[in-house]
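Quick review question:
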């Protein structure tokens, strides 16, 4: 099978969708011997879509662990004009405001549609919305006469980026759509998308990698000792709500001053703001916060294994792969009782759910877990069993391949 994946960024670019596409690509190439190609951009971060951040990867074609990766340069100029058109047309609800917002999202890549059409693939899959590469993939696959699968990873609470009729129209034209959660599927059903078109397939982890994680070594390396550790792993962007966790820790430290915070994620334009927020903490509290940026993915499992629990206060996640990764280390998790997160975490069964933007309730949940080792063990173990049943990469890859094969057979 000749598979083409079209994604806005690919390793070493860090992000949930980037990792999803990378792992599926590797699984198809290694387990099934498929010829897998990835079309992506030179960007390490999406900031590159609107300005030259000086971190672009080389354009061209390379082979990465058996997967052919072609990186396209990005047009990232006229940013002020794009921002002005997007904001004004959206504010006044002018015709074409959706297109203006999508052009601002980018990536604007000249020639990608033609390259997709000429790729010789048997099936094309593209991710995620609202990026322009979704529309390049749709048009290119249609031109080539091959099936197209869209994985939107919709953050439905974000109306600026996702409340667009053009997204729904694109899904209607696709041969199939992959929703990451039942919540996302229900959202699309309410928009009129046929249930036959939607498959619910989440993200995955390599259980062996997490089972062999070396949390004690990480504790020694970063001086965490035997203190309680609250971890938050996410790209350093505002929507992940690092501020909510830091606010919650103020209450946690009043009752448990020995608690530590481990923050890990890829740097972005928001990173200086996060660093300033940490610097504003009282000296005793600031010393108990460890910030790790742009870490090697290979140490990710060990970082999680070093924690006592994982927190992600964001409400704008299409899936929340980090919850699955924490469960793979048998760690309990805390998320918000909203959107996709509430579809992934079963409250009081494998994690805890708290109201969005409520530092006090988040602090109470953190303290509850830190004080109750039996509860931590029970929630973490049940999360691990859920991962083993649903979220291992071999099972995720198998589901994608079965979908691809069914579409190819139908087209034939």
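Suggested answer, residue by residue:
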């Amino acid at each position: 099978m000749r598979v083409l994946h079209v994604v806005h960024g690919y390793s070493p670019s860090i992000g949930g969708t980037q990792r999803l596409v990378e792992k599926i690509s590797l699984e198809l190439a290694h387990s099934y011997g498929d010829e897998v190609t990835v079309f992506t951009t030179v960007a390490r971060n999406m900031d590159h879509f609107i300005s030259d951040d000086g971190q672009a990867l080389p354009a061209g074609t390379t082979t990465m662990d058996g997967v052919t990766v072609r990186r396209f340069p990005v047009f990232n100029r006229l940013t002020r004009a794009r921002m002005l058109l997007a904001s004004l047309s959206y504010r006044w609800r002018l015709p074409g405001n959706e297109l203006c917002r999508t052009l601002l999202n980018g990536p604007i890549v000249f020639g990608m549609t033609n390259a997709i059409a000429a790729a010789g693939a048997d099936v094309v899959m593209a991710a995620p919305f609202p990026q322009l590469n979704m529309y390049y993939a749709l048009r290119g696959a249609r031109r080539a006469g091959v099936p197209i699968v869209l994985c939107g990873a919709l953050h439905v609470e974000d109306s600026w980026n996702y409340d667009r009729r053009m997204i729904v129209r694109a899904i209607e034209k696709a041969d199939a759509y992959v929703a990451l959660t039942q919540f996302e599927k229900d959202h699309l059903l309410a928009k009129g998308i046929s249930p036959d078109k939607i498959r619910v397939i989440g993200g995955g982890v390599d259980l062996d990698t997490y089972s062999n994680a070396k949390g004690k070594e990480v504790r020694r390396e970063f001086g965490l000792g035997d203190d309680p550790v609250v971890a938050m792993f996410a790209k350093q962007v505002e929507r992940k709500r690092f501020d909510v966790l830091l606010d919650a820790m103020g209450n946690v430290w009043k009752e448990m001053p020995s608690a530590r915070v481990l923050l890990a994620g890829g740097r972005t334009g928001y990173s200086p703001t996060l660093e300033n927020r940490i610097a504003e903490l009282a000296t005793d509290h600031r010393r108990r916060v460890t910030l790790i940026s742009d870490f090697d993915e290979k140490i990710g499992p060990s970082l999680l294994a070093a924690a006592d629990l994982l927190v992600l206060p964001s409400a704008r996640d299409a899936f929340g792969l980090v919850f699955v990764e924490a469960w793979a280390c048998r760690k309990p998790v805390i998320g918000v009782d909203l959107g996709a997160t509430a579809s992934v975490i079963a409250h009081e069964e494998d994690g805890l759910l708290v109201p969005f933007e409520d530092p006090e309730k988040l602090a109470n949940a953190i303290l509850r877990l830190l004080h109750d080792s039996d509860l931590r063990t029970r929630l973490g173990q049940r999360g691990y069993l859920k991962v083993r049943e649903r979220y291992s990469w071999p099972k995720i890859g198998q589901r994608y391949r079965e979908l691809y094969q069914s579409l190819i057979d139908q087209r034939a």
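Why it works: The CA atoms of residues 150 and 269 lie 28 Å apart. The mean pLDDT is 95.
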